Amino acid sequence: MDIAALIVWIVTALGGFYLLGTWISKGGHRQPSSSRFPPPLIFGHFALAAIGLILWIIYVATDSDALEWIAFIIILVVALLGFTMLARWIPTYRSRSTSTDEVRPAEGHFPVAVVAAHGALAATTVVLVLLTLIGVGES
């Protein structure tokens, strides 16, 4: 189960990295007043997700119970930040059909499919990490 969580976490991170790259390339970090995503929110989500992933990789390599719990707590915080960003992104998505590129915030350029896949994979990652934590799939 821990390897499955790792694989899904990496794929989730790739989608998140794509979204972060889109947000940066569209000026989200340069014009924070035009974005619904304050830079500390989006960079905090990214940094914590990366730290959690690194800890999970170390956990898989060492089977350390402490790292398993720390990674789980971190991924819960990352999920809360992700839900916050989703709640801030939904009004932008709803209004993007009436806005032009010049007035659209950076997150208005996120492809819906990538946002949906990132969220679904993130939820799957949380579940797989939890299942690993409670010992499902151990031999």
Report low-confidence residues grouped into runs of 5 or more.
none
Number of strands: 0
What's the mean pLDDT score? 90
The N- and C-terminal alpha carbons lie at a distance of: 10 Å
Q: In terms of structural class, how would the helical and strand content be classed?
A: mainly alpha
What percent of residues adopt helix (DSSP H or I)? over 70%
Biggest sheet: strands, sense, closure? Answer: none
Q: Roughly what fraction of the amino acids lie in strands? A: under 5%
Number of domains: 1
Helical stretch tally:
4
- Alpha carbon gyration radius: 16 Å
Order of helices and strands: HHHH
Inertia-based shape: elongated
Give your account of this protein's structure.
This protein has 139 residues and is mainly α. The chain has one domain (2-133). It has four helices and no strands. It has helices at residues 2-25, 39-62, 65-95, 112-133. Helix 1 packs antiparallel against helix 2, helix 1 (2-25) runs antiparallel to helix 4 and helix 2 (39-62) packs antiparallel against helix 3 (65-95). The model has no long low-confidence stretch (mean pLDDT 90).
